[in-house]
Amino acid sequence: MKTQNTRPVQQNIFIIYILLLLSLVVSVVSLNGLDSNGNSSTETIPTPTPEQLKKSPISKNNNTVPKPIIPFTVPKQTENLTAKENPLVVELQPKAYFLQVQNEEINLVPQPITIKKGTSKEVALQQTLNHLLSNNQNNQFSSTIPPETKLLGLQINETGIHVNLSDEFRYGGGSSSMIYRVAQVLYTASSLDSDANIYLSVEGELLNEENPLGGEGIILAEPLTRQQFVKDFSIN
Description:
Shape: rod-shaped
Helix content: 25-40%
Number of helices: 5
Strand content: 15-25%
Radius of gyration: 57 Å
């Protein structure tokens, strides 16, 4: 009988012990959920204002953040470093005019003169006239310019081309010889520009109406041009 009365008491003590443990566990969990000031440790997220929502980078359509734009520069095409010729350097091709007789007819015949590339017009014409004066006779062509004639000067300015010859140019031969020697100098001096004005002088004295050429008194226009010379003397 004594043994049977003690079992309910032990069961009651065990139940009370379990309840105390549960109460202790609940208290510990509750204390961990509060911060040191007695407030809940759960962080609250503030609700964004309308202005913040406008500035947000999130797309309104699909709620996705746009990808950043990376600047892209198109590379420039590199030029081949090849030597280029200067387009301002012009290769001149002046001509010296000699005479050729065919069937009793006298014709002016141009002979190209090789000039170094880059040479100025003034120097090119000086070299060409010197070639004409120093090669006045050969097997194929002839000249009525006296052999001793020298080029004293040649200048180009805004008025035209000024040619100055030595005094030997005045002498020797008749009127036909005088006309064709002038034609040789005129056409040679204007070989780079057929419309150029030519001012022909002998020992610095301009040949014109007041200062005719030679004993025959060949009167030359001032300035000389190819077109006017052909009209005045009917040369070929």
